[in-house]
Amino acid sequence: MRRIRVGFTCLLVLAAAAACTSMGAEPWERDVLAKEQMQLVTDPVEAAIDDHIYFSKEASSGGRGFGGGGCGCN
Amino acid sequence: MDFFRARRTASGHVVLAFCALLLHAGAAAEDGAQSLDLSAYRGKVVVVDFWASWCAPCRRSFPWLDSMHRKYGEDGLVVIGINEDNAAEDAEAFLKAFPVSFAIVADRDGELAREFDLLAMPSSYVFGRDGELAARHLGFKTTKQDAYEAVLRRLLEPAMAASKNEY
Amino acid sequence: MSAKNTGNIAQGLAAATCSLLGTAATLPVLAQEQPEWEFDTALLYYGEDGGRVQDLSLNLLARRLFADDRILSVGLAVDSLTGATPSGAVPQDELQTFTRPSGESTYQVAAGEMPLDDTFLDTRYALTASWRQPLGRDYAGTAGLSFSTEYDYTHVGANFALSRDFNKRNTTVSLGLALARDELDPEGGAPLPLGFMSDVRDLSERGGTENKDVVDLLLGVTQAVNENLLVQLNYSLSDGTGYLNDPYKILSVVDPLSGDAILRTPAPGAAGPLHQYRFESRPDKRTKHSLFGQGKYFMGGKVLDMSYRYMTDDWGIDSHTLETKLNLPLGDTSYIEPHLRFYTQSEADFYRASLVDGEPLPQFASADYRLGSFDAITAGLKYGWRTSSGKDFAVRLEYYRQDGEIPTHQLIGSHDQSSLYPDLDAVILNFSFGFGM
Question: What is the mean pLDDT of chain C?
Answer without folding.
Answer: 89
